[in-house]
Design a protein that fits this description.
single chain; 265 residues; alpha+beta; Immunoglobulin-like; 2 domains; 7-stranded mixed beta sheet; two-stranded antiparallel sheet
């Protein structure tokens, strides 16, 4: 019983660590930092993902009324001229939106790159050093998104648990088949629906594209389907289960949404 509890604890910690790693290292995680202007530190947080149904707000909280701001932006990836939008002050907050009216709202998978310039008298600072890239997406209903995320999370969790069973001489079949079912449901059934609603295409991985999120799912799915074949007939397929788990952990260590869908201007 004690060994089982330890295995579950390690499996949960590994799965949570993988999920947090994917999110915080991915291209949609907000760009955060601090700049110093007029002897004060100003914290900034620039979003890198937004809904196509509205313009993306850009805000900076700075109480010093002598500080002004502007946003420099353009479509990405392009080599067109940069545009500059002044930020209006409302109390302690400087704010604007991108793209500004009367520019049309962004399409699915449309991207903008932008940075903020703050000024105080003759002093100026810019953040970030390399412009942040934000991608616009369609809204995905919670009743689809939550089961998708849950299936992928528990698929990864049960994969890790299956590997412990394989290494420790336990029953791999239950955890192995549960892993396959969850990854197929979350990645190959709900995943394309989420992709379609967010970016307008069901699948953008091999053989139609290079979306790493789709291709990661494809690699992990193939590894577990092969393991499931080995698990037939009452076999434990310990080597196949361990290999499939390692493949899954490696591919899901790649940050989420890298090389994702991107509108061509």
């Amino acid at each position: 019983m004690r060994r089982t509890s330890v295995q579950w604890t390690i499996a949960i910690v590994l799965t949570l660590t993988s999920a947090v790693w994917q999110w915080t290292t991915g291209p949609t995680y907000p760009a955060r930092g601090t700049v110093r202007l007029g002897g004060q530190d100003i914290a900034l947080r620039l979003d890198r993902s937004h809904s196509i149904t509205e313009r993306q707000p850009v805000t900076v909280t700075v109480a010093d009324a002598s500080v002004t701001g502007a946003v420099k932006w353009r479509r990405f990836p392009t080599s067109g001229p940069w545009r500059i939008e002044s930020m209006a002050r409302k109390g302690d907050v400087l704010e604007t939106v991108i793209p500004p009216a009367p520019e049309p709202l962004m399409p699915m998978a449309g991207k903008l790159e932008y940075r903020v310039k703050l000024s105080r008298a003759s002093e100026q600072v810019t953040f970030p050093e390399k412009p942040a890239v934000t991608r616009f997406k369609g809204d995905v209903p919670a009743w689809i998104l939550i089961p998708h995320v849950a299936a992928m999370f528990f698929g990864m969790l049960f994969a890790t648990r299956a590997a412990f069973a394989a290494i420790g001489g336990g029953n791999t079949r239950t955890w192995g088949f549960l892993t396959v079912a969850l990854l197929v449901f979350g990645g190959f059934v709900l995943g394309p629906i989420v992709q379609k609603l967010a970016f307008g295409a069901y699948w953008t991985g091999i053989p139609w594209g290079y979306d790493l999120t789709d291709n990661k799912m494809l690699i992990a799915g193939v590894a577990w389907i092969l393991a499931a074949v080995q698990l037939r007939g009452g076999r434990q397929a310990r080597v196949a289960v361990v290999v499939a788990t390692i493949v899954t952990m490696v591919v899901f260590a790649i940050p989420h949404s890298v090389w994702g869908s991107e509108a061509k201007w």
